[in-house]
Design goal:
This protein has 228 residues and is mostly helical. It has one domain (15-187). Helix content is 70%, strand content 0%. Helix 4 (99-134) packs antiparallel against helix 5. The two termini are 26 Å apart.
């Protein structure tokens, strides 16, 4: 799945489109920060191995730092992934729908997601408060744990807003199926997914010029013909 909200084009018209456009930039920033955190953890791991192996100087509290950093690259990109439709989901049934029925089911599923995330925000916030009030720390060098626990409800709030945008977007399409797609991911077939992956890796020209096995097209045509 993919969405057309994360691009460098000028802000589109309409309140929903403008908000989605600028909110996507914020999600991109968080996801980029998450990627930087992964590189930092990688270099920290190299320093730990090198220091322990050759200098007999392991980094104090290495495990504690790793445990604290995991929350950054696990949660900072969660809304970005939701925007692109990258989270694990079942398309076996959804792929058979189109138009208003598809948008209705998507809107319903998004509202359920909003409800679940609301509960997770509340519970994770309570976990943060408990850790802050009792002064919970890590085992080795006694790093405070509450900053890492605070990140979780904050990132869930970012995800909640993304769900809200998609709920509005799918509801809008349910009411007006012919309207332009704004703020929601779109189900792609295998060829479209492959073409976008090629474009991401090698550029737009390579993605547009890519050629695929015609067996896929034949099966697709046969399937369409039999359905008719």
């Amino acid at each position: 799945m993919i969405t057309n909200t994360a691009n460098s084009a000028p802000p589109p018209e309409g309140a929903l489109a403008r908000f989605d456009h600028w909110y996507a930039k914020f999600e991109d920033f968080l996801n980029g920060f998450s990627a930087i955190a992964i590189f930092a953890v990688m270099f920290l791991g190299v320093a730990q191995v090198f220091g322990r192996k050759f200098l007999n100087l392991p980094i104090p509290g290495y495990i504690d730092f790793i445990e604290q950093s995991m929350v950054v690259f696990a949660f900072f990109g969660i809304a970005y992934c939701q925007r692109l439709g990258g989270h694990v989901r079942m398309d076996l049934f959804m792929a058979k729908l189109s138009g208003r029925p598809l948008y209705f089911v998507e809107a319903l599923a998004t509202v359920v997601g909003l409800f679940v995330i609301t509960i997770l925000i509340k519970n994770s916030w309570l976990h943060f408060l408990r850790a802050y009030e009792i002064g919970d720390t890590s085992i080795d060098i006694e790093l405070p744990i509450w900053p890492a626990k605070l990140i979780i409800p904050l990132c869930f709030c970012v995800l909640w807003l993304r769900f809200a945008i998609q709920a509005v977007g799918f509801s809008r399409l349910c009411l007006f199926p012919g309207a332009s797609i704004i703020g929601v991911p779109v189900i792609e077939d295998v060829e479209e997914q492959a073409r976008h992956e090629i474009a991401d890796a090698l550029g737009e020209e390579a993605g547009a010029a890519a050629r695929f096995d015609q067996t896929y097209h034949k099966k697709k045509r046969d399937k369409t013909g039999s359905a008719e």
